[in-house]
Amino acid sequence: MLRKSAGKVPFIIITLTNNSAGGQPVSMENLKMIRQIADRYGKIVVFDSARFAENAYFIKAREEKYKDVPIRTIVLEMFSYADAMTMSSKKDAIVNIGGFIGMRNDELFRQCCVFNIMFEGYITYGGLAGRDMNAIAQGLYEGTDFDYLDTRIKQVEYLGNRLMEFGIPIQQPIGGHAIFVDAKRFLPGLKKKNSRHKPLPYSLP
Ligand SMILES: Cc1ncc(COP(=O)(O)O)c(C=O)c1O
Fold this sequence. Notes:
single chain; alpha/beta; four-stranded mixed beta sheet; 8 helices; 10% strand; globular; binds pyridoxal-5'-phosphate
């Protein structure tokens, strides 16, 4: 069945961390297994890497094997399972603007450059100023610092715990970048208007 429908799947994309599940991480084991499935079916794996550093932090914090491994080493292993990546640098590269795409395959890169002409122009066109690229480079470095990540993610945890103390229903476990309040329970009087979103595939505690 899977083999039959594999032809309809152009690639596999993984969002690190999972935005729609409240910033939950993808485990290293999951990344490895996805790589194996992709290899079995000849698919490329793309990481949406916006919060890759938070993901690495959670791997370190929650997975026994990685507890003494530096964040940047964990990041290198995570990306060893990817063929390509996109980065919205406003997140874990802590900058005001900018992003980038990376890929290992020269032919794919060439195809992307051609495809890009229809939407953004030639890749040599100025998009980001050199100053902003420098800021991204510095942000990637600072954003993968353990103490920085630890302080910021614990602030989110603190906020989540305080909200729970006040009986405010939030999505759990608390993720890395945000607290998701269950508006349906917190504001039952509020009508869900014009929503095109489907209900969550899981229930909140
Ligand atoms: C996980 C993730 N990927 C990509 C994006 C897109 O980012 P941008 O607005 O920089 O295009 C976002 C934006 O919030 C995001 O959360």
